[in-house]
Amino acid sequence: MLKEYIDQGRIKLDPSRNKHTITVHDPCNYVRKSQMAFGDHMGELNRWITLQCVDPSLYREMCDDPLDNLCCGGGGGAWAMPYEKERLAYGKAKADQIKATGAEVVMAPCHNCRDQILKGLGKEHAEGRMDMGNYKETVYLWELVANTLIIEPWSEEEIEKAHAERDAQFEKFGIELEEEM
């Protein structure tokens, strides 16, 4: 949906709002499991959207192929379960991978991955027990997009058109509208 909205110009982005170097983490479920189950993965799409949100000179690739990106160690319930020692041990390889990019920001579209990298590995990094190089934060894909949105007020014509489309859709589905005040 985000790609469609960007392509159609329904949302406009200003990449200059993001000043930090960034890399993309490929979640196991979003990439490897999707590839196995559906024959396609979201790795390239995540990168394309990310590159719409940052100056390309700030982008740092984590690996040659999204299917080869390392697991963060937080999936499969590990983040929510009492396996902190094991989770952090598995996550050490991801921390090393992040460090090697030199990136300050990691875009992680999965909530388990985001929490593992930000709250697990990031905490270890902040407290000096794990070295993630220049790492500062982890963001969701939608956060990255939201941070670069250009908000332009609609014209009266655009408002009228949107209301007409809304009314037509509501009529099609038999939804009664209350009178606008």
What does this structure look like?
By secondary structure, this protein is mostly helical. The chain has one domain. Helix content is 49%, strand content 5%. The protein has 7 helices and 3 strands; from the N terminus they run H-E-H-H-H-E-H-E-H-H. It has helices at 2-8, 28-38, 43-53, 84-101, 111-126, 141-148, 156-172; strands at residues 22-24, 105-107, 137-139. It has a 3-stranded parallel beta sheet, with helices on both faces. Helix 3 packs parallel to helix 6 (141-148) and helix 4 crosses helix 5. The two termini are 32 Å apart. The model has no long low-confidence stretch (mean pLDDT 92).
List the helices and strands and how they pair.
Elements: H1 2-8, E1 22-24, H2 28-38, H3 43-53, H4 84-101, E2 105-107, H5 111-126, E3 137-139, H6 141-148, H7 156-172
Parallel strand pairs: 1-2, 2-3
Helix pairs in contact: 3-6, 4-5
Classification by helices and strands: mainly alpha
The helix content is 40-55%
The end-to-end distance, rounded to whole angstroms, is 32 Å
What best-fitting shape do the alpha-carbon axes yield?
Answer: elongated
Radius of gyration: 20 Å
Number of helices: 7
Hey, roughly how much beta strand do the residues contain?
under 5%
